[in-house]
Amino acid sequence: MADQTLPIAGSLEVTPQRHSPALLPEWLHGWVVTVDHKRLGILYVVYSIFFLLVAGAEALAIRIQLAWPNNHFLSPELYNEMFTMHGTTMVFLVGMPILFGFANYLVPLMIGARDMAFPRLNAFSFWMTAFGGLLLYYSFIGGFGLYGMGAAPDVGWWAYAPLTAKAFSPGHATDYWALALIVSGFGTLGTAINVIATTLSMRCRGMSLLRMPLFVWLMLVVSGLTLVTITPLTAAQIMLTIDRYLGGHFFDTQAGGSAVVWMHFFWIFGHPEVYVLVMPVFGIASEIIPVFSRKAIFGYPAMVAASVAIAFVSLGVWAHHMFTVGMTSVGNAFFVLSTMLVGIPTGIKIFNWVATIWGGKIRFATPMLFCLAFLFQFLIAGLTGIMLSVAPWNWQLHNSYFVIAHFHYVLVGAIVFNIFAAIYYWYPKVTGRMLSETLGKWHFWLFLIGFHVTFDTMHFVGFMGMPRSIYTYEPDRGWNHLNFIISIGGMIQGIAVLLFAWNLVQSYFRGKKAGNDPWDAWTLEWSTPSPPPAYNFATDPVVHSRRPLWDLKHPEDPDWKYEA
Amino acid sequence: MSAIPVSPVAEPWRLPSRGRVAMLALIAGESAIFTIFVVAYVFYIGKSLTGPTPLEVLAIPWFNTICLLSSSVTILLAERQIERGKMRGFTMWWALTIALGTIFIGDTAVEWHKLIYIDGLTIRTNLFGTTFYSLVGLHATHVVVGLIGLSLILIFTLTGHVKEQHSERIQVFALYWHFVDAVWVVVFTVVYIVGR
Amino acid sequence: MAGVSRPSSFTPRVSDLSRKSITRNLARKQMQSRMREYGERAIRLISVPFLCFVATCAAPIAWADGPQSSPSIFAPASTPASSIQDLSWFVLAITGGIFVTVGGLLAWAIVRYRARKTDDDSEPAQIYGSTQVELAWTVIPILIVVVLFLTTARIIFAIQDAPKPQVALDVTVVGHQFWWEFRYPKLGIVTANELHVPVSSALEPRPTFLHLLSADVDHSFWVPQLAGKTDLIPNHPNDMWIDPRHTGLYVGQCAQFCGVEHAKMLLRVYVDTPEEFDAWVKQQRQRGTQDSSVAAGRHIFETQACTNCHTIAGTAAMGTFGPDLTHLESRATIASGAAPNTPGNLHAWIQDPDHFKPGALMPAMQLSDEQISELVAYLTTLH
């Protein structure tokens, strides 16, 4: 390091440019055989958005069915398939792939690497995930089996034994469900390994662990968590498949097997899975909120520590999904405590975001709007989570619409809102064009209104004793009006998502040119051209602080002077 | 392109090997899979409604265990050899590792043959059968995968494609084999000592 | 990096330690005075929508004692449900307080620190963190968790480990795919879908202890006004108890997805006065009636497949796969609450169970209209 100046990003003239293929087959071939982390990232995101629309349509079908009591829009069988597929799709084909897609695209750029650690493993992982999704949806065609019964899986996304046994779920629907999750699980495992290896071994000079952007940190933590949570699910699915195909007895209650063991195995996966989904969006919020508040993130080390703490504690809370299955009172009390403990690091995160906004100059661009809504909604989701962790109250609320409201506050109010924020924020980097702000604002406000009409109302219908997973309800229970309101809210959200999809398409062709750094941001990806060239950086960047572009823009007052 | 001043501290830049990191990550994930199967096995000990019981049919596979555990030693010796560039020694110890692994698998096959055809214990007989074949079978699958990998490397060595500079990769692969051996210690303890 | 801050990115500065601590103190003082200034306004700003929110919560919830057609968890009529409600108000108060505080600060910060048109291009002061502040907002949540946990644990033990008094009534509840079987082992009664229990009072406690079993898949017993839910899991018996304080009909339903007709696995709990309950017990213990005028219908019942699944005491029918029909006419509903128990509905149900409950496990028996009418005539004599 003799010279006093070093380049931060590649200069364009030495960067190999992608040639644009002339023919459609050549173009398609290029996407299929690609091992470029950016293209794979785009594939993940496009794949997930497609399934987001599918699962959204399923949700609307559910809401139409429930708009009135004794409605006949869906048959009971079809309704059960709809909510099973909606849940499974949203978690496995939308949530995880889209977040790992962001990671794929952004992690190498953010840490100044030229690709993931294992590009071919990366491609393999994506295609495994993709085939998992296709396998799941093929069940609509192939699920009938010899019995001619069932089509898509209809056992709920939690698939409690022994309802999944051959005796109660004949046909092949449940097999498709189990196999699809095993297949996509291997893909996820591959990606998780890849992200960990990339973050630990591919960082550019100066990018020490405590200088990584928080999104990278969160993805590292999430990948570690994925390693030990997706695998128990895979193990449980293997057991279920052994039961169904080889006549095993793991969950066969007639042969001494235990239904409760399945619940434990499923939730050992299932609860950390919530954190696998929500922690990447913590990372997204931690990138976007500082940029639009024009301030450095408040308490970076605390944010990192809180993330790691959440990951560890989340491994010990699973049985709070099982307060009603008859655990001992001591067991119940233990899981009450461990669940409440998660609230502490989560609270720290919220406080730090508020403190980041505090004293800033907030710019209300669409990404920031989604992030601010996220903060409120995540606050409420956390508080209803505390309510649910109170075991006796949980005996009332469990499996009611209150629970549905709570976890949609997390999955939609926190995760989907931040996914939208991320797309508005990084779309210019990926495509070179800005998304329309006008459509973006419409999308935001419509979605916000629809979200609250739907999910705020659901809390109350839960208080009034409406259980989940029912295809219809009695007209005299006082749930009619509220359900109708919930359905209206669902429609509003549907319209908002269509606006978003239209925005994605039309801005690709007609959007304003973005330039390298449209948001005046501080992380490395904004130093590259939009879209970034193959291999990202012509020369390896060198960084000296958490905000290399801040240092670049404020040479008289660089960050590294103040970071310990 | 713009440039920024270098911070006063210029630290040397060293990062862990990506292969090692990835293999350790894979091992962490695999450990979780095995944990679930082990927990299921332990939970269902003694819960079968019908026979045969483990005590009636299982013999403790000492020979097997010694073979597999010593294969960890031989692979370690192979790693040392390639690090020093002694390809002949490497090939020898590597081949011995494969031989020991193969003996293990062969012996397991003999054990399963006896269980199935003489004792009438299959995966559908009772909970013991279900959990036993799943857990031991999951481990055996890992041994088989390991043997395939080991054999491929042996073939490449014999054709002269594996050289001294690959010792790092060889060590990464050997990590997997050590893991498979370590898992056997757990499986052996749970199935043949605790569960019998 | 604790407490490092800087007033403005463009302020020329000497980067020595004393200077840094001065600016840190300055920033903190500024923050404190601003807090005082705006705090009050922020609380007023946020409390209005919050009160509206609470009012909306309360509106659809019935408060009155006694049974409701809408089974709200906030209209408890039994000790477990009441103690849960008390606990829930406590938790709601704490979480509501947190929401007002944090949400208020957030809303205020968003309004106060918005970028204005009059702003110059300079960046705001960059504040990297503060150990004291971090410590404060770690300790306060820990204290809240301690309080919440201790309160919760007390109620868990009070409900779950409540001792069973001698006078308690025992009922075994067996979940079946899409209907409930109720057995009173000490009274020798077997019935379905409609549970009868005596009223309980402080002076004369008469709690009912339910032993929960399942014949097939997982179910969950949930009558919100009486108690929280408990699952019925095959191979995993559970227990719960209720002590209803007011007579009447309490509704609920299966709360664990159990298959196609999970939605129509409804529950009705009749809380009777002691006299009514004794009369009901007496009536249920009688054997099935033998009315010769409906012999034709009885013959059809005994010769068709009905007997494989149903029991009528005093006949050859001893099946246990479906509900016991010995006292069918003493029940207000059929098909686990899916339809009122009228001759017309019985006729429609036997002709095609899918009419009320598509996917119910009772098959359509392919009987002629005439046969069904005779059968219904017989069934309506089963008081």
Round the Cα radius of gyration of chain C to an integer and report it. 32 Å
User: Span from first to last CA of chain B?
Assistant: 71 Å
Structure annotation, total helices of chain C = 8
Report mean pLDDT of chain C, rounded to a whole number: 85
Regions with little confidence, pLDDT below 50 for 5+ residues of chain C: 1-24, 60-64
Structural descriptors:
heterotrimer; B: 196 residues; Four Helix Bundle (Hemerythrin (Met), subunit A); 6 helices; elongated; disordered N terminus; C: 383 residues; alpha+beta; Helix Hairpins; Immunoglobulin-like; five-stranded mixed sheet; three-stranded mixed sheet; 39% helix
Describe the protein:
Chain A is an all-alpha fold. Chain A has 15 helices and one strand. In chain A, helix 2 runs antiparallel to helix 14, helix 4 (119-142) runs antiparallel to helix 5 and helix 12 (401-431) runs antiparallel to helix 13. Chain B has six helices and one strand; from the N terminus they run βαααααα. In chain B, helix 3 packs antiparallel against helix 4 (87-117) and helix 4 (87-117) packs antiparallel against helix 5 (127-158). In chain C, strands 5-4-3-7-10 form a five-stranded mixed β-sheet. In chain C, strands 6-12-11 form a three-stranded mixed β-sheet. Chain C starts with a strand and ends with a helix. With 383 residues, chain C is α+β, with helices and mostly antiparallel strands. Chain C folds into three domains: 17-115 and 123-160, Helix Hairpins, CATH 1.10.287.90; 169-270, Immunoglobulin-like (Sandwich), CATH 2.60.40; 292-379, Immunoglobulin-like (Sandwich), CATH 2.60.40. Chain C is elongated, with a radius of gyration of 32 Å. In chain C, strand 13 (333-334) and strand 14 (339-340) form a beta hairpin. At the A-C interface, helix 3, helix 7, helix 8, helix 9 and helix 10 of A face helix 1, helix 2, strand 2, helix 3 and strand 11 of C. Strand 1 of chain A pairs antiparallel with strand 1 of chain B.
